[in-house]
Amino acid sequence: MEDSFLYSKKILLVDDEPELRKLVTDILSDDGFIDIIEAGTVRAGFSSARQEKPDLAILDVMLPDGDGFSLMKELRTFTDIPIIFLTAKDEAADKLAGLGLGADDYVVKPFLPQELLLRVHAVLRRCYKADSPLLELEGCTIDFSRAEVNKNGKIIALTAKEHMLLETLSHNEGRIVSIDALCEALWGDNPFGYENSLNAHIRRIREKIETNPSKPVSLITMKGLGYKLNVRK
Questions:
Q1: At what angle do helices 113-127 and 18-31 cross, to 10 degrees?
Q2: Least confident of 15-19, 32-36, 46-50
Q3: Are 102 and 82 in contact (CB under 8 A)?
Q4: Rounded distance, CA 151 to CA 125, Å?
């Protein structure tokens, strides 16, 4: 299926109407999306985005403790995920306000299920490429869809932080990723003070992916600069 890689993407839905949340969740689930997080307020949406790190956010404009526009501004302090506004307000000013903030699309209630799906697919296709969930390294294979390492036939589980760290490095394969950039990817917009924690994660990852962790050939330290991941071609 052309869009099959999209179904692994995590979607955050923020709307204060439980019936609407259920409707949208059912539409997305029936289409094949497997990871949908729901929230009913600005505060809950912000917290969920921080903890769950979704790949797409669908936001209502009118929320009990604020609005979708302010929530989008808060999300933009730590993530650039695509955002779709889903709302009953169809005034041109509201559309312009959302799009002016950098929203990727704007869907007006009531909507047809197929319209919502087409827009979700279009935004995700535009923002994410169809990466393979498998990454071949020297001596092992990483399956990002399962958060597992296959090393000489032995399956080794990755923690959430290890998965996130390897994914960040894989998106920059062969290129140096700075320590600050890796800390920011793992711990948010204030990465200072996490270098020791990052080093600990690097050591544990090497134990899982390297044939000889003391002489790594895949996850390489670039002294004074950061780290890079060598991928087997």
A1: 70
A2: 32-36
A3: no
A4: 32
Cα separation, 4 vs 58, in Å, equals 20
- Which phi-psi region, left, alpha or beta, contains residue 153 (left: φ > 0; alpha: ψ -120 to 50)? left
Tell me what pLDDT residue 2 has. Answer: 45
Residue 154 burial (10 A CB sphere; 0-12, 13-18, 19+) = exposed
Cβ(78)–Cβ(21) under 8 Å?
Answer: no
Q: Tell me: the pLDDT tens digits for 83-131?
A: 999 877 666 566 556 566 678 888 888 888 988 998 898 888 888 765 5
Q: Is the peptide bond before 133 cis (omega within 30 degrees of 0)?
A: no
68 touches 98 (CB < 8 A): yes
C-alpha angle 192/161/185, rounded to 5°? 45
Q: Which residue do the tokens 């179904």 mark?
A: 7
Lowest mean pLDDT among 44-48, 52-56, 102-106, 125-129: 125-129
The encoded tokens of residue 178 equal 């700075």
Q: Look up tokens 């403790």; give the residue.
A: 65
Q: Is the CB of residue 191 less than 8 Å from the CB of residue 183?
A: yes
